[in-house]
Specification:
Blueprint (H helix, E strand, L loop, with lengths): L1 H23 L38 H6 L12 H10 L1 H22 L10 E3 L3 H25 L8 H28 L8 H7 L19 H26 L4 H32 L11 E3 H7 L1 H9 L1
Antiparallel strand pairs: 1-2
Helix pairs in contact: 3-9, 4-9, 5-6, 6-8, 8-9, 10-11
Length: 318
């Protein structure tokens, strides 16, 4: 009888203790004096050697108080951690979202107001060799895949994560290797033609004539100022993204350098996405038949004479 009573009391004590422990371990339940869970436990410091702690004030007992004073340039800041967390967590995906919505809308407005430029394509002149065409597409296709899969990863949480996002990550890695090879060939192939010229300033001042329906000679060589800008962003910017991506993927360096690489990767990405949309619009919609020049290598004589007037003079002088 006494033994049975003893076990009942023991079981009651265990239940009370269990309830108390579960209550104390619940992060959502205020603790003594209104303190939060992270303020009354030892926290992660017990698992991390002091020499390996990036910022001891963000672990253990003072976690919540440290987070309350967290902010760019705060006394508790460590390297680029806070600015990276702020931008990555709140702004990068928003900026990418704005770009992929507003840039196409701007060009839709241009198409509706100004319309497509049309030229006589009767007489054609060969401007790109077979080698130019092959290298361009072998660099362009993986580059577009990089942009698309990169956006999938940027919006991965909105897309539900999982296998699709992991697949995009794997495609991103393969496309990076292909672009690294053919991007170099494209750079060597067109770098000289893409060097800035004095007349490029004139092109920029009139926005290449794309804000007018008139057909009058535009100051441009084989590549106009806009195409040159895209070339340098695509190649040099692309190479910078390959390097920063490699740092992040293989974790070549310390955490602060990796944060810097991630910041650079995203900022360059803004420019790449905006100009890629621009490049596609110009090639497919803004000029009738423009895309065919990088498919069969030929451009209409009138198109060259109007949109690439300096290059047309060079061809006639040769």
């Amino acid at each position: 009888m006494r033994l049975s009573k003893f076990f009942r009391i023991l079981m009651l004590m265990l239940v009370v203790a269990g309830v108390s422990l579960s209550y104390a371990a619940n992060p959502s339940v205020p603790q003594k004096d209104g303190k939060q869970y992270a303020e009354v436990i030892e926290g992660n410091n017990a698992l991390i050697m002091p020499s390996d702690r990036a910022n001891p004030k963000l672990y253990g007992g003072p976690e919540v108080e440290a987070i309350k004073s967290w902010g760019v340039g705060s006394p508790n800041s460590y390297g680029l951690g806070e600015i990276f967390t702020l931008l990555q967590g709140h702004y990068f995906s928003t900026i990418f979202g704005i770009l992929i919505i507003l840039v196409p809308l701007a060009f839709l407005g241009h198409f509706m107001v100004i319309g497509q430029k049309k030229f006589n394509h009767g007489k054609k002149i060969r401007v790109f060799s077979s080698y130019n065409i092959i290298v361009h597409w072998c660099a362009a296709i993986p580059f577009v895949m990089l942009c698309l899969t990169g956006l999938v990863m940027v919006f991965g949480d909105k897309l539900g994560g999982g296998g699709f996002v992991r697949f995009a990550r794997d495609v991103h890695g393969i496309a990076t290797i292909l672009f690294a090879v053919f991007g170099v060939l494209m750079f060597l192939m067109w770098a000289k033609s893409a060097l800035p010229k004095a007349y490029d300033i004139q092109w920029l001042m009139i926005m290449g004539g794309y804000l007018s329906k008139e057909k009058k000679p535009i100051p441009a060589g084989k590549f106009n100022a806009g195409q040159k800008m895209w070339f340098w962003v695509c190649t040099l910017g692309g190479f910078a993204m390959v390097i920063s991506g490699a740092f992040m993927f293989f974790q070549f360096s310390d955490i602060n350098t990796l944060r810097m690489m991630a910041l650079a990767h995203n900022v360059i990405g803004f420019l790449v996405i905006a100009l890629l949309i621009t490049h596609i619009y110009m090639a497919v919609f803004a000029i009738e038949g423009a895309l065919h020049s990088i498919i069969d290598g030929h451009m209409g004589e009138e198109e060259i004479a109007i949109l690439h007037s300096y290059y047309y003079k060079e061809l006639n002088a040769a």
